[in-house]
Specification:
Blueprint: E1 6-9, E2 14-17, H1 24-32, H2 36-48, H3 56-75, E3 81-85, H4 88-101, E4 105-109, H5 126-145, E5 148-151, H6 154-164, E6 168-170, H7 177-180
Parallel strand pairs: 3-4, 4-5, 5-6
Antiparallel strand pairs: 1-2
C-alpha cells in the first residue's frame, strides 16, 4: 500500500482516503490477544486512554488518521470539526484536533455506547460496569469541549446531555413513521 493520501474530487464533494499504518499499541493488543491476563490488561489500558472500542484495527485507524489529519490541518483551516460516533475513536480524534487547531468542535451521536444501559433491569458485569464508567468519563470530557451535539432521539439526548450539560439537537434518522409517513420524497440532483 501507499503512504500517501488518495484524493478524489467529485462535483458535490471531495473524498480523502488515508493510508492505514501499524502502531505499537495496536501491535501489542494483537500480540496479547490470546493471552488472557495480558489481553485484559491491554483492553483496560485502551479504555483508560479513551480507546473504547477494543479492535486493534481501530487503533491503527486512529493513529493513521491522527497523523494524516495533523499534516492536512497544517495547510488547511476549517470553521468546525465534527466528530461522529461510532466508533469512539472518531470522537477522541475530533476532540484532539479541535484542541490542537483551536477549531470549534461539534459531536454527532448515532447511538449511545451500549444499548444495554437503556434497559431498566440492567445488571452489568464488573467488566461492563467499568466500561460504562470509562465511556461516560471520556464522553463527558469530549462533550464539555464541544459547542453542541446532535443525536437521533430525545431519549438518547437526555442520557448524553446528563453527562455534560452540552446542549444539542435531536435529528431523527428517518425511520420514525410519525415524522415521515405523510411526506412525499422529492428528487434532489445532488444526492441519490
Amino acid at each position: 500500500g501507499s503512504n500517501k493520501a488518495v484524493i478524489k474530487k467529485f462535483e458535490t464533494h471531495t473524498e480523502i482516503y488515508f493510508p492505514l499504518n501499524s502502531h505499537w499499541l495496536s501491535d501489542m493488543h494483537t500480540a496479547w490477544h490470546g493471552q488472557k491476563y495480558l489481553n485484559r490488561m491491554a483492553i483496560f489500558l485502551h479504555w483508560m486512554f479513551g480507546f473504547l472500542d477494543g479492535d486493534p484495527r481501530l487503533l491503527m485507524s486512529y493513529f493513521s488518521l491522527k497523523k494524516a489529519l495533523k499534516n492536512h490541518l497544517k495547510n488547511h483551516t476549517y470553521d468546525l470539526i465534527v466528530g461522529i460516533y461510532s466508533p469512539h475513536h472518531m470522537l477522541k480524534l475530533a476532540a484532539y484536533l479541535s484542541r490542537e487547531t483551536k477549531t470549534p468542535l461539534a459531536l454527532d451521536f448515532r447511538d449511545v455506547w451500549s444499548l444495554r444501559i437503556l434497559q431498566n433491569d440492567y445488571k452489568p458485569s464488573r467488566s461492563e460496569e467499568l466500561h460504562d464508567k470509562l465511556c461516560a468519563y471520556h464522553w463527558k470530557k469530549w462533550l464539555k469541549q464541544s459547542l453542541f451535539l446532535s443525536i437521533v432521539s430525545a431519549d438518547l439526548y437526555q442520557i448524553v446531555y446528563n453527562l455534560s450539560g452540552t446542549k444539542g439537537e435531536v435529528v431523527t434518522n428517518g425511520f420514525e413513521s410519525e415524522h415521515y409517513a405523510q411526506k412525499k420524497p422529492q428528487r434532489n440532483h445532488l444526492f441519490t
